[in-house]
């Protein structure tokens, strides 16, 4: 069965790391049909719209989308794309690779981030010259859908259970609902959970990341805490992610368009290549996904490195090395 | 002039570290009159209320309050107390002390946290069996008041300027208002500012904390990012804080009541003693504040240590050592 894959390089280093990941995918010679689509700052400049309807429709109708990065328009591109795939969870692994200089080399976490609500609701109002409000939205249904996914993730991955990060001591009604919904689904399924306040998590993950494996969180908590974990494993250049919906997925590195190094051909493609591996696994190609992961790990350990990891290799050198090890 | 000081030990290790700080203050023999007041889990158990009206009124009418910690009732105690002093900013320094095992020993930051609004508005609604909402509130007036304070803080402290952390790419109206208000006050006063997204801050502060000095943030961002910084300097046991209002202040360690070690007499009193130093500085006793800071620093460098810092000294040993060095 042929899979339709939308590829959206976007802006900045997205134009470099996304083709790198596609080269790796093409090398595997699977039954994929790639459709390139456009989005980002440069599209806004040309057409007045950061995310063309056509790109949205492609993402909303194909099996999987591989996205690079967008610049200033990131929110205008990535948030609607997450909606396009009806993504209810953003899976964000943060693993320190052997040989990569990491603040906490023992870090090995997966964040399961709620991907549709919280302060990302889009409901904001300017009530007066002095006052603006935002409606933070939490539903049991979204929290339960996330929890079902988390339980399966934990069972499939052989984890003992998961942590639920929240701030229900302050956001009693909304994060209280989030926590209660998640915990009750887990209880029904016999999956163990432990609660942690999101602020306390920020301290404790620095002091000892091995206390945590899988961390289920509301939208903004997942955003910030996974970026924190990126700081522990050596930077955003290392974090892949998968936005999973009921029928399709959107796969993207956690990093942005890095305008400071864009165009120099030295961006680290690891996060995007591993995002492509997550895409393969999502599409049922587990073995190929694992092959990519192993190859990236081997290259990170002793292969050529891009400047963010202290080397002087190019994106292409690293991609060649990954392909060689496949 | 005699200053009236309210002392609220609270729960758990609050009962140990607060008296320790009071001993240090008493040793300095300043014109202080201490009033002990009660709050916390044990008060809830006894009286049905975590924060007695009397304690609230004391905090709302005296020059300064020194607070220890509260347990499960922390939010019911500390949030109203911040309101009692009309505290519009929570000053949270995060400094790694020489000799203390810190993940990033070069960390030297001060968070200026908005202390009245954001998701701490208290406006939450249960709209249906499935849906709850919280109204996140941002006003220009609160943001400007914070910015005025930040500008003075930067000028007095000899800093180059400050960072403004926010998530205005998603919370465009509310954090947009926050950012614009803060930046425009700073521009008027000729203070330099640099923006940083709160998620990006979480990565970058791990990779290189020396990029930042003073960080101005909305309420929840300040909560989480300062706790993250605690993880970089060796734990919550090290972070003091000052809640500043127009006429009075509330001074408290950032850590909680630590039920796991409460009653053993081994809690690290450093954060509370330095919070007391911040109180002295607030009350105009700069020299004495500095003497306390120097004494704590000296003890942390080569004096007795509590178990959280790898030693086996008691709270009392450490407090004795601080007093000896005064
Ligand atoms: C660009 C932004 C809207 C986005 C988010 O906040 O989700 C980004 O930070 C991320 O984490 O993917
Ligand atoms: C106890 C809680 C309400 C409080 C907060 O969120 O402000 C605490 O985390 C803090 O940072 O002082």
TrEMBL record, chains A, B:
It comes from the Archaea. Keywords: Oxidoreductase. This is Isocitrate/isopropylmalate dehydrogenase family protein. InterPro entries: IsoPropMal-DH-like_dom. GO terms for biological process: isocitrate metabolic process; tricarboxylic acid cycle. It comes from Natrarchaeobius chitinivorans. The keyword Metal-binding does not apply. The keyword Oxidoreductase applies. GO terms for molecular function: isocitrate dehydrogenase (NAD+) activity. Signal peptide: none annotated. Residues 4-322 form the Isopropylmalate dehydrogenase-like domain. Belongs to the isocitrate and isopropylmalate dehydrogenases family.
């Amino acid at each position: 069965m042929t899979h339709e894959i939308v590829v959206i390089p976007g802006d900045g280093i997205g134009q470099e790391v996304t083709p790198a990941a596609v080269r790796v995918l093409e090398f595997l010679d699977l039954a994929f049909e790639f459709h390139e689509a456009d989005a980002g700052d440069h599209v806004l400049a040309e057409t007045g719209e950061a995310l063309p309807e056509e790109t949205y429709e492609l993402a909303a109708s194909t099996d999987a989308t591989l996205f690079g990065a967008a610049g200033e328009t990131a929110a205008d591109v990535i948030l609607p794309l997450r909606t396009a795939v009806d993504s209810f969870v953003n899976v964000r692994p943060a693993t320190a690779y052997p040989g990569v200089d990491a603040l906490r080399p023992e870090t090995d976490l997966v964040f399961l981030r709620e991907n549709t609500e919280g302060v990302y609701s889009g409901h904001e109002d300017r009530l007066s010259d002095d006052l603006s409000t935002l409606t933070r939205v939490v539903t049991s249904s979204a929290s339960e859908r996330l929890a079902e996914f988390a339980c399966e993730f934990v069972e499939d991955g052989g984890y003992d259970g998961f942590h639920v990060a929240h701030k229900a001591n302050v956001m009693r009604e909304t994060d209280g609902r989030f926590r209660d919904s998640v915990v009750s689904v887990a209880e029904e399924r016999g999956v163990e959970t432990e609660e942690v306040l999101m602020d306390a998590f920020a301290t404790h993950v620095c002091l000892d990341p091995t206390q945590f494996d899988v961390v289920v969180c509301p939208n903004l908590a997942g955003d910030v805490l996974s970026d924190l974990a990126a700081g522990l494993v050596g930077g955003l250049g290392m974090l892949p992610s998968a936005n999973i919906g009921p029928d399709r997925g959107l796969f993207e590195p956690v990093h942005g368009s890095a305008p400071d190094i864009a165009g120099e051909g030295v961006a680290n493609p690891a996060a995007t290549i591993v995002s492509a591996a997550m895409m393969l696994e999502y599409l049922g190609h587990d073995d190929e996904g694992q092959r990519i992961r192993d190859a990236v790990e081997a290259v990170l350990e002793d292969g050529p490195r891009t400047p963010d990891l202290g080397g002087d290799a190019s994106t292409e050198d690293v991609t060649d090395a990954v392909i060689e090890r496949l």
